[in-house]
TrEMBL record:
Source organism per UniProt: Papio anubis
Biological process terms in GO annotation: adaptive immune response
GO CC field: T cell receptor complex
Keywords from the named record: Adaptive immunity, Immunity, Immunoglobulin domain, Receptor, Signal, T cell receptor
Top-level division of the source organism's lineage: Eukaryota
PANTHER family: T CELL RECEPTOR ALPHA VARIABLE 9-1, T-CELL RECEPTOR ALPHA CHAIN V REGION
PROSITE patterns from the UniProt entry: IG_LIKE (PS50835)
Location of the Ig-like domain: 2-107
Protein name, per record: Ig-like domain-containing protein
Length: 107
């Protein structure tokens, strides 16, 4: 079935450090890819969404590029702030079958 595999565990960074959270996926179709962020005490909210190969999306200093060849959608930020402390979820949605998968990563 469809699934995503994400950088595991908690990452400790200092302000100004760069961040990369890896996200790779397996799908028999051509899924849409998403990053969600969940700040302490809040529900998950959409951070980035990519619908097709080579889509490069950015929001709040974060960016990710849909790479179909490497089945990846890695989340990057050049300089993290204390306010970026949150749980980050990588997810996919298969528009053909309607299945979905997700993984989470805490920053």
């Amino acid at each position: 079935g469809d699934s995503v595999v994400q950088t595991e565990g908690q990452v400790l960074l200092s302000e100004g450090d760069s961040l990369v959270v890896n996200c790779s996926y397996e799908s028999t179709q051509y899924p849409s890819l998403f990053w969600y962020v969940q700040y302490p005490g809040e529900g998950p909210q959409l951070l980035l969404k990519a619908m097709k190969d080579n889509d490069k999306e950015s929001n709040k200093g974060f960016e990710a590029t849909y790479r179909k060849e490497t089945t990846s959608f890695h989340l990057k930020k050049d300089s993290v702030q204390e306010s970026d402390s949150a749980v980050y979820f990588c997810a996919l949605s298969d528009t053909v079958t309607g299945t979905a998968g997700e993984a989470e990563h805490k920053l």
